[in-house]
């Protein structure tokens, strides 16, 4: 690429890599990686957000073929534990078998097709509540009531159909396509990039889901760039370098790293360190800032130091090995098509999917993955917020809920706007929104359009 290539253009001000040069601790190599890609400047067709035909294509060619996160391993820790994973009009059972292995079955009885499980739980067998056909937790046919009338059924051919299963970083993935590549091959280099952060050694400290009146892709895109902070979250501009985010594109995953403890380049005035700290702590202008900044120090360095001490009781001395960037920066990865695990000590993980079989409604989930000492705590139960319930009503999210509410305020209006607009496509920034363009280019490849 040349210096004039749109994929290399950056916002004025300190770059993310230059900011890393000021870190008070050694910066890990994973944050020094750079993989910008210019993916063109063409508009993205808006019909994918509201046409039923697109949704049907996604059901046929995406959700039936792609690796997708179904749960965490800790959701099914013991033999017989299972969860029900639904995607569009399909349903799957993800189960820990009696031998400790994880399997996934199509959630339908082979007799009359009744859904076998419709809520999470634990069982010693998989028995249909309609007529009593039963299978072992390994999926083998166990019993046919009045079996004399089913002499035409070969027991060896009447086992529950399985779908492929894989695990990574404590996440359990399924893939309905028997011919799909392995999960390891699909994930690629992200496996190595997350080794330092060990998400497998975390537990689900919070799990909140919100029903949204918009297509799942619209919801996901709101969390795939920091360009919207200026207009949507103006209260955080003093401590978030939104347009100085670094965007990296690989094969089936990408990331946006947005630096914290540094002001937005869009602000037209000097932001002093104490004002950065005031914004970080959400301190009113008439209140004393709880954390002072010694001479020669920055709000970024002091904020990271405070974060180290907050995490020390759980993570021990390893907190001293981590850089300021790993405490303060939003390191938001996306694994195609819909999983967003954040790197470092930020506990956030997002998942986005259609709500049932409705292409204009979606479910956004936020998990907090926290480190722990001793025995792994039980995962938090999912709290589901209905359409009218704000994120901020979920107290476990603290101030993050208010930020999510600002995002939701846009999403439903983007849905309406895409259907209303006479312009046939959406226009994306060449660099700052290249993660969104990467997603749609990959989606087009999967759908064959």
Count of separate structural domains: 2
Radius of gyration: 24 Å
**Unreliably modeled segments:** none
The total of beta strands comes to 20
- What is the general shape? globular
Mean pLDDT: 95
Q: Tell me about the biggest sheet?
A: 7 strands, antiparallel
| First-last Cα distance | 28 Å
- Name of the CATH class of the largest domain: Alpha Beta
SS element count, helices:
12
Strand portion: 15-25%
Which fold name corresponds to the CATH topology of the largest domain?
A: Naphthalene 1,2-dioxygenase Alpha Subunit, Chain A, domain 1
Proportion in helices: 10-25%
Which class best fits the helix and strand makeup? Answer: alpha+beta
The neighbouring-strand order within the major sheet is: 2-11-10-5-4-3-6
Give a description of the structure:
With 449 residues, this protein is of the alpha+beta class. The protein has 2 domains: 6-54 and 198-447, Naphthalene 1,2-dioxygenase Alpha Subunit, Chain A, domain 1, CATH 3.90.380; 68-179, Rieske Iron-sulfur Protein (3-layer Sandwich). Helix content is 23%, strand content 23%. It has a 7-stranded antiparallel beta sheet with strand order 2-11-10-5-4-3-6, with no helix packed on it. The two termini are 28 Å apart.
């Amino acid at each position: 690429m040349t210096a004039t290539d749109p994929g290399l253009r950056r916002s004025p001000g300190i770059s993310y890599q230059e900011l890393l040069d000021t870190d008070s601790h050694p910066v890990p190599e994973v944050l020094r990686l750079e993989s910008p890609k210019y993916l063109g400047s063409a508009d993205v067709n808006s019909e994918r957000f509201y046409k039923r035909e697109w949704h049907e294509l996604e059901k046929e060619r995406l959700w039936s073929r792609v690796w997708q996160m179904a749960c965490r391993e800790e959701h099914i820790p013991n033999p017989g534990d299972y969860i029900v994973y639904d995607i569009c009009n399909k349903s799957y059972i993800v189960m820990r078998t009696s031998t400790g292995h994880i399997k996934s079955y199509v959630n339908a009885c082979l007799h009359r097709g009744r859904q076998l499980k419709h809520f999470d739980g634990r069982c010693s067998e998989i028995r249909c509540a309609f007529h009593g056909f039963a299978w072992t937790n390994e999926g083998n046919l166990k019993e046919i009531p009045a079996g004399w009338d089913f002499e035409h059924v070969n027991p060896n051919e009447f086992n529950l159909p399985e779908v492929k299963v894989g695990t990574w970083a404590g996440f359990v993935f399924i893939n309905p396509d028997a011919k799909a590549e392995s999960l390891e091959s699909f994930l690629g280099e992200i496996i190595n990039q997350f080794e330092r952060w060990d998400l497998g050694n975390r537990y689900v400290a919070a799990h909140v889901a919100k029903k949204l009146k918009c297509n799942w892709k619209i919801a996901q895109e709101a969390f795939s760039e920091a360009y919207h902070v200026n207009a949507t979250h103006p209260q955080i501009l003093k401590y978030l370098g939104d347009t100085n985010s670094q965007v990296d594109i690989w094969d089936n995953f990408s990331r946006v790293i947005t630096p914290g403890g540094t002001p937005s380049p869009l602000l037209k005035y000097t932001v002093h360190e104490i004002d950065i700290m005031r914004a970080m702590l959400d301190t009113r202008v008439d209140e004393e800032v709880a954390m002072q900044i010694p001479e020669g120090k920055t709000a970024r360095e002091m904020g990271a130091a405070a974060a180290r001490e907050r995490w020390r009781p759980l993570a021990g001395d390893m907190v001293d090995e981590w850089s300021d960037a790993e405490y303060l920066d939003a390191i938001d990865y996306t694994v195609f098509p819909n999983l967003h695990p954040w790197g470092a000590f930020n506990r956030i993980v997002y998942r986005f999917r259609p709500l049932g079989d409705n292409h204009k409604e979606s479910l956004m989930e936020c998990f907090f993955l926290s480190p722990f000492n001793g025995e792994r705590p039980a995962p938090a139960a999912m709290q589901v917020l209905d359409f009218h319930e704000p994120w901020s009503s979920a107290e476990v999210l603290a101030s993050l809920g208010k930020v999510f509410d600002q995002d939701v305020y846009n999403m439903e209006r983007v849905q309406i706007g895409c259907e209303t607009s006479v312009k046939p496509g959406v226009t994306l920034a060449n660099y700052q929104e290249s993660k969104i363009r990467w997603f749609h280019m990959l989606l087009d490849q999967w759908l064959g359009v």
